[in-house]
Amino acid sequence: MSSSIEMGQIVGGGPAIMNLAELLATRLLVQGNSGSGKSHLLRRLLEQTGNLVQQAIIDPEGDFVSLAEAYSHLVIDAAEHTEAALQAAGERMRVHRASVVLNLEGLDADLQMRRAAAFLGGMFDVPRAHWYPVLVIVDEAQLFAPASAGEVSDEARRASLGAMTNLMCRGRKRGLAGVIATQRLAKLAKNVAAEASNFLMGRTFLDIDMARAADLLGMERRQAEAFRDLQRGNFVALGPAISRRPMTIRVGDVHTESRSAGPVLAPFSPPTEQVADLILAPLPEPELIARPRRTAPPPPDLLTQLASHGETLSDAESRPEDPIDPAERRQQLAALLREVLDEDDGGFRPPASLYQDFLVRCRIAGLGREALDMRSFRRALATARSGTTPEAAETPEWQEAEAIASTLPEDMQPVFLTLARAALDGKTCPPDRDIARIYGTHSTGRARRMLGWLEEQNIIVLRLDGAGRRRAAIIGPGWETLPGDPGL
């Protein structure tokens, strides 16, 4: 099977040929201002390789969903799925070798970054047996790998930037070939852009972007002005998959159309009616809701404030204390926390989201608005994920286990406490699948890496017997699980 595709024509020469096998090994960066033909280039690349290699498209604007009709891509609407479901979809699309368009249209920037990171993480963590070649197209890559912090949360930015870094830096061995496209090189994280060996640079006007493009192509600074003169659809190409020397190519035609093509110039016909009557017409009655202006009452004088404060203190002293027994209260809190975790995606939601759900349930149960602070909630969450009951949590052995766990990162505490619980109860060592679920992932490979990290930190010791069953011993107390099958 030929691995060469035609991207268009060399300006002043023959056809512009791209070596697909080389592209899969060396990755591609596309840059061009809005209107330079960047999306047209990506569509040409996708159409030319649609029947040659599996594809995954991160589509923030819904531009590429039209490929589904012509090339049988599965379109996943990210707004209709949780992050856990998208992570599982990323794994399954590689297992079943299906081309996918992840449509992020309609989501705000924070959700786009979180859900793209979940999908890319699922593709990255798939077992070695499914490391087939995949062309991963990320449009508007500066949204998912920003060079600096923006208005999105730090958690979403770290997750998205980590997923993009894995794609470009470590994805090659896993069969992932990143093709990232951006409007602004200056806004794209340098460690992500630097991993590409092939470049297609389109029309650019800002000095900082032209300078970076010239540096990547090995051109002199005085030659950077040429990027301003490029026609729409023309790109300067360089890289082992395209050309060993910079050359200008014109991208060829495409067969599918984008849903969000730019505006088309048409004859302008102003309205014949009175414009003022159309634009300044009174609103319908239901929309004119009278909002009475509230005036604040005058503040009471100082003597009145002192008197009311004294009455409040007297009422507080005479009010009986909370009749709920502390042990019963702890049991109620543990039961509410278990309800939160037992929901469909409870094991894969971030602690901040679980905390908000937990507080709402506490208010409904009459336990107050602040039943637990965030730090106490994280400790209780780690205990709940380990399967420990409130009664067992009061034992000296468990207090010792929690003391050891407090020295670990918060995301590793549930894993360690699960192993400690199994050892104290005389149960078998949990399999990789259960370890992954407790950590909040579907990847068994990540679960094995976590166990290896705990062993490197001299927290646990893992041993395999002749049948391949695994034991886990806690260093210090000496507790040890029974042998269990890690792949069960």
From TrEMBL:
Q: Which domain of life is it from?
A: Bacteria
Under Gene3D superfamilies, the record lists: P-loop containing nucleotide triphosphate hydrolases (3.40.50.300)
SUPFAM superfamilies associated with the record: P-loop containing nucleoside triphosphate hydrolases
Q: Name one Pfam family in it.
A: DUF87
Residue ranges annotated for the Helicase HerA central domain, each copy included: 6-73
Q: Which InterPro entries does the protein's record reference? A: ATPase_Atu1862_pred, HerA-like, HerA_central, P-loop_NTPase
Q: Which residues form the signal peptide?
A: none
Sequence intervals crossing the membrane: none
In its UniProt entry, what is this protein called?
DUF87 domain-containing protein
What organism is recorded for this protein?
Acetobacter fallax
Organism phylogeny = Bacteria, Pseudomonadati, Pseudomonadota, Alphaproteobacteria, Acetobacterales
